[in-house]
Design brief:
30% of the residues lie in helices and 22% in strands. By secondary structure, it is of the alpha/beta class.
Amino acid sequence: MRALLVIDMQRGLFEGAKKRFDAENVIKRINGLIDRARKKEITIIFIRHNGPPEQGLELNSEEWQILPELHKEPSDMTIDKTCCDSFCSTNLKEELDKLSVNKLIITGCCTDFCVDSTARQATSLGYEVMVASDAHTTADKPHLDAKIIIEHHNFVWSEIYSTKAIIVRPAKDIF
């Protein structure tokens, strides 16, 4: 069984001065994956970060909400987290186990933190992991542009071997 994880696609990470690389197209590609997953009856799980007020992701705030342009349905599962790793101190693994999920497709924000931590942990836990190479994003950092960060992580993930390899493919080639 497969599940699609949509990590931290929240208003506070995209609105205002927070610029994410290729955000509009990343959102479109994630929506395409959501729509195809729904047609194939694949579980869709939105991961939402809860943070302190200074992070702009305070529980129940406007910034904490999932981006309204995403094709989220009330039947989609939502799991809240407080760490970069979506498995850390959450019930994600238990929910995946209940559904007999053994394959994860990972998308979201931020490439270099929550997407990376979740992909690495998932493969360490024995899941088959696929990252949509063009359906995750981040912001420029003091020493690296977001585009380079994304390219670098796509390369690193494709070279990592833990208990299983991480497959990296464009969103159009998934499903």
